[in-house]
Structures are given as C-alpha cells and as structure tokens.
Amino acid sequence: MKRLIATVCLPGAMDEKLRAIAAAGFKAVEIFENDLIAFDGTPADIRRMAGDLGLTIAVYQPFRDFEGLPEPRRARAFQRAERKFDVMHELGCDFLMICSSVAPESLGGIERAAADLRDLGERAKARGMRIGYEALAWGRHVNDYRDAWEIVRRADHRCVGLVLDSFHVLVRGTALNPMRSIPPEKIFLVQMADAPKLSLDTLSWSRHYRCFPGQGELPIASFMDALGATGFDGLLSLEIFSDRFRAGSARSVAVDGQRSLLVTLDALSRRNKRFVPDLPPMPPRATCRGVEFVEFALDAAEAESFTHTLAGLGFSHVARHRTKDVDHWRQGAVNIVVNREKEGFAHSYSVTHGGSVCAMALKVDDAAATIERAVTILDQPFKQAVAPDELDIPAIRGVAAGLMYFIDDKSELKRLWDVDFEPIAGSGVAGAGIASVDHLAQTLMHEDIQTWQLFYTSLLALDKKPEQSVLDPGGLVQSHVVEAADGALRIVLNASQSRQTLSSRFIQEAFGGGVQHIALACDDIFEAVKFVKDKGVELLPITANYFDDLAARMDLSDAEIARLREGNILYDRDGEDEFFQVYTKTLLEGGFFFEIVQRRGYRGYGSPNAPIRLAAQTRLAPHPGMPRR
C-alpha cells in the first residue's frame, strides 16, 4: 500500500506542510482544496515544491455537491469539474476525489448519481485522469459506503472508483462484511481517521475531533481487516481534521501520521499473517516487564535535599557510579539514580528543565529489537559517549526530550548495576515496605498528549484506557492511561488547556513537561506511612471534610476511618477491590512529588480522589506560578 497524507492534517502554510510531510518519509500527498486556495502562488508552484521534496501529488480533493443536481445546476457542476481538471493538470495530479452531495437541491436516486459519475468519468478519461466517489456520513442522499459502491458499480467506468474513509464508515456503525466483496481494483483511495467516542452530530465530530489511527476509540482494526480481505494494495492516506493538531507543529503531526500508518499496517499483517507491500519489516511491540530505574538530574543542593527524602521513604544508598557523580538508591525493586554530573546529557537537561526526572529505563525482553522497532516507526534514537568499561545502554528520546533506556536479561545489560556501579558496604537499611513502581505520571502540553499516547502504544505492548477529565481548582485536566495488561508498566499522561491548573504550572516551570510524580507500590500502606512519618517526611494534608464524607459514603468502621485520617490516606473502592494512596508534599521546585499506593485487586488510579489531591496541593501553592529556583 502506498502511504500518503492530506495537507489538511497539518498546521502551517503550504511550504511548511510539504516539508514536514517529506521529512516524515512520505512519498505522496493529497492536496486539500482550501490549502491550495489559500496558497499565494500557482498550482504549478506547488507541483515544483513537491517535486523538489521528492513528493508526488496523488490526489486533489474534495470536489463537492456534484451528483444528482437538476438543470441548469448540473451543467454548471460539470463546468466546475472541468476547471478542477485544469488545476489538476497544473498540479501534475491525475485523481480527483468527489464526496457525496449535501446540497439541498440535489436529487436522490442511485441511477441518476451513477449516470452523473459515468459522464464525468468520460471527461476524466479524455484528460488522462480518474475520479473517486466517497460517501460522507452526513451526505444528503448517500451516506453509506455500500450505496456509494453501488453507484460506482452501476457507473461501470474504468476511470470511476470508490473512496473509503474509515471515519465515515465507523461512526455510523456500518456493517463491514460487505466491504470484503468489493473488487480491490475499484477501490481507488482509502482515507484513514480515528476519533474518540463522542455524542455529537457527525459533521462536528468529523471537523474537530478526528485523530490518527490508534489515537482514538473507533474499531480501526476491524476496518483494516475488512479492507485487507479485499486484497487492496492502493493509496492509503490520512485525512484528519483536529483542533488539537492545528495547535501543534507540522513536523510532529507528520511524524505521528507516518507512525500511525506503519503501526496500523504492521498490526494488520500480524493479525492476518499476510505480507503488506511497502511495509518495512520490524519486530513486534515490546513486552515491558517493569521499570528498571528512574534517573533524576539534580544540582548539588537539590540532590542533598532529595536524597534526604529518599532515605526518609526507606531507600538505601547502595552504590556509586565508578566514574561519574551518580548515586544508586534502592528499595525493593525500585531503583532511583541521582545524577549530579556537571556536564553531559543529565546536566544539560537539568539546566533546561530544572531538577527533575531526566530518564527512565524499562525492562523488555529484547532491548536491541525494541530499538530496531523504535527506529522503524520514527522514534529518535539517542547515543552518548561512554567510558571503555561502561555499558552502552540503548535509548531513545522520550517525553520533553528525556531519555527512555531499554534493559534486558539476554545481554550484558542485565549486569548494569555490577558493571557501572561500585557497591557501598553495609548500606542496607530497613525500608518502608515499598516493593515496586506502581505507575509514573507525566504532564504534557495539551496539544502533545495524543502524540505521546501513540508513542507508547506503538512501541510497547500497552493498551490505552478511556480518557478521563479531572477537576483541578484551576480548570480541567485530561488524563490518559497507557498500561500493560499485567500492570508491569502503567503510565498516566496528564494535560490541561487552562494555564491555572497545577499541570500547566508544572509545564511552565519544567519548560515542556515531564514526569511530575512517581507512585510507589507497597503491601501495607499504614506501616509505610508510619515509617515515613517517623523519618520526618512531610505528607500532603487532606481535609477533615474528605474523611467525614468518606465515612458517610463507604461502609468503613470508625477505626478504619480514623487510621486513614491519621495517615492522610485517600481511599477508593470498586466492588470488593480497594485502593489506598498517600502523597508527599512537593519535593523539587518544579513540582515533583511521590505517591505511595496499595492495591487490593483494584485496577484504577483513584480518580475520584484526584480533585481532593489537586485542591490540597493548590492550597500549598496558591500563587499563579510554582516557586522558582
């Protein structure tokens, strides 16, 4: 399948769009009519720009309100089409996409529409061109791809074909099985778009909320399976209308588009065990076995205060790096790396973002294969100089240009702590009972959240959960979760359009976001809280009203409520499953904090408690900006 993208997907001017499309590895493009109209130049100029970038112009679209018109409107529609053919000749394009009419005066009837397409097909043939017909989900008479196919079938012209759009098909819940019987040579173009599930009219839904395959909630896999059954091997394009994308960068959107198509086709080939032409080979999504370590980039003053808190949380200072000013702290299976180097990546990250998480390492089955897939789907690999006796840990750029390392047990990487670090004798201390990293929460720019959701789910075997909106005193925060089926890795992605939320304040301080908090799992939160309080760690105070309300809502004993109140422990329940969570106060000036959780079968993240936590944190930082360094 030939992968392409419509210019309407990207923000910016025509030249910026084309450069971004070419840089993302596309070889062909759809020119959207409005983009051409707004361009200050000729169609021939666009053709030259595209050609210089190695792009062919495969489609010009859309041609609207053509079929089923009474005279004299019908004659004028054919005159309009001839002018579009003239434009296409200048563009060097031979394919015009026609969407089903929404004109109030259009007349119904499959035979009438077929006759119009047949006549236009003859005109296209005379020009050496083709036309494709698409059913808009809100079309006046034709809003179902099955009707569009019947019209194309009856037109019976070699220059007239069908256009399928996943959005128009899926939002109406149209049966997919009939698609399987469409001859592949009559499918001239397939346009791909995903979307969240919303209760909206289809026009508004389409114009504002489309996203790339894998970023929404439509059954894209089922659509692709039906398409694959036809044997289709033609133009596979992206057509996205999104307010969120319009606020992003053209380069990032184009890369997301290419990545989404590669991953969609890779998933199709694996489900159906069939070769997909033009799809580069790649390993499957990596299975993640958990978080191997989290690395903090801190200056000396920050490190002193932060490591004091680590000790208070029950972590032991177990090793020092053999050649760098880097320390290893451990508790249970949680490894924290504190980097105080005055040069190199971590130092640069600290200068840019302040004291913060600069990297994390994930345990995977095969680190080399993970990197191979990452490069194939356009993730950015990272290399840095290492000493002769140090391990070269494979890595890619992640959120806010931080690093994501990959560790496995099948190579020398499994010896990381022995090779790169020198143990500290007698360093073990009794801990707080913390066993593992439960989840990490990353705060992002609002326009970037779908990018990073796709980043994680395209590379790793993670599933995304439905979006939730959380009430912050300063506005709404949108929360997206990606997680492994077994819970080995859980990542919460948060973003807000309001500049007054704590998420947005973190973005302002961190200059682009990053890991805002880490949740640590334990088996007995009451013992953990007692330990950290005895060590002087300050926990986030929760209001008495919360616990009074909890007593009214939940069938907990007075003694249980009293224990929760004493420890500032938040509580939630789902059926018989229970969840306990407690937070430290902010530890670094950018706004980072730890959470300690205990799960008793509970699979969520305590979302009912999020507004309480955010209100408590806001009370401690009521000013417009967090404290600056």
Give an account of the 3D structure:
The protein is an alpha/beta fold and 629 residues long. The protein folds into 3 domains: 2-272, TIM Barrel, CATH 3.20.20.150; 288-423, 2,3-Dihydroxybiphenyl 1,2-Dioxygenase, domain 1 (Roll), CATH 3.10.180.10; 434-620, Roll (2,3-Dihydroxybiphenyl 1,2-Dioxygenase, domain 1). Helices cover 35% and strands 25% of the residues. It contains 21 helices and 26 strands. The strands form 3 sheets. The protein has a 9-stranded mixed β-sheet with strand order 14-15-16-13-9-12-11-10-17. Strands 18, 19, 20, 21, 22, 23, 24, 25 and 26 form a 9-stranded mixed β-sheet that branches. Strand 20 and strand 21 form a beta hairpin. Helix 3 (43-52) runs parallel beside helix 4 and helix 9 crosses helix 11. The longest helix has 23 residues, at 250-272. The protein is elongated.
Topology record:
Elements: E1 2-6, H1 14-23, E2 28-32, H2 33-38, H3 43-52, E3 56-63, H4 73-91, E4 95-99, H5 110-126, E5 130-134, H6 145-155, E6 160-165, H7 166-170, E7 187-192, H8 202-209, H9 220-230, E8 235-238, H10 243-246, H11 250-272, E9 288-297, H12 300-312, E10 316-321, E11 326-331, E12 334-339, H13 345-353, E13 356-364, H14 367-376, E14 381-382, E15 395-397, E16 403-407, H15 416-419, E17 421-423, E18 434-443, H16 449-459, E19 463-464, E20 468-472, E21 475-483, E22 490-495, H17 502-510, E23 514-522, H18 525-534, H19 544-553, H20 558-567, E24 570-574, E25 577-583, E26 593-600, H21 610-620
Parallel strand pairs: 1-2, 1-8, 2-3, 3-4, 4-5, 5-6, 6-7, 7-8, 9-12, 13-16, 18-22, 23-26
Antiparallel strand pairs: 9-13, 10-11, 10-17, 11-12, 14-15, 15-16, 18-23, 19-21, 20-21, 21-22, 24-25, 25-26
Helix pairs in contact: 1-11, 3-4, 5-6, 9-11, 11-16, 19-20
